[in-house]
Write a structure and sequence with these properties.
About 35% of the residues lie in helices and about 40% in strands. It contains two helices and ten strands.
């Protein structure tokens, strides 16, 4: 009888141990599930923080709308271009953005020159020189120059009356020169 009881007791002990092992296995599975869940939550939070640090360039004369940011983000990617130029006078060299618009109004013996410009380096400060030029006649008139800070940007609206005939605006910067034709009004 004691033999039978010890076997039953042994079986009970064994079955309790199996039940205990199953509980431990469940707890381990829960632990790893919560650990994975915590990892995913932390990853999402970090991605949100990194994305919130991405700055959308703005200008005082134009408000960038959400749909423009979405389109540009979707189709342009995240890599900085080595160089790009459009007909409107915007160019990006590496990590510097710049835009120039220039107009000339003939007023008889003299011309009115109007130049809008914006330059912004994103990674390092740099020197710049902005000039009215006519390379055929070897004319050159400096509009502005100086040092631009990182993410500071320089912009201005320049006007000048002159008897000289300029046909381009040239921006000299650390990557070379960027020229834009002056449009006659």
């Amino acid at each position: 009888m004691s033999n039978a009881n010890s076997q039953n007791i042994g079986k009970r002990k064994y079955s309790l141990r199996v039940g205990g092992i199953e509980k431990i296995a469940k707890n381990i599975k829960r632990y790893f599930f919560y650990k994975k869940l915590l990892f995913v939550v932390v990853l999402i939070l970090l991605a949100t923080l990194v994305y919130s640090g991405v700055r959308t360039p703005t200008t005082p004369w134009y408000d960038v709308e959400e749909w423009e940011i979405e389109v540009c983000s979707k189709f342009s990617g995240s890599a900085a271009p080595s160089s790009a130029e459009t007909e409107t006078g915007y160019v990006a060299y590496g990590t510097t953005s710049m835009t120039i618009q220039a107009y000339k109004t003939n007023l008889g013996e003299e011309n009115l020159y109007e130049v809008y410009y914006y330059i912004e380096p994103y990674t390092e400060s740099q020197q710049y020189v902005l000039q009215l030029v006519n390379e055929n006649q070897r004319l050159n008139h400096e509009i502005a120059s100086g040092m631009i800070g990182v993410n500071a940007g320089v912009m201005d609206y320049y006007t000048n009356y002159s008897t000289q005939n300029f046909n381009e605006v040239r921006l000299v910067h650390q990557y070379g020169a960027f020229k834009v034709p002056i449009i006659e009004k």
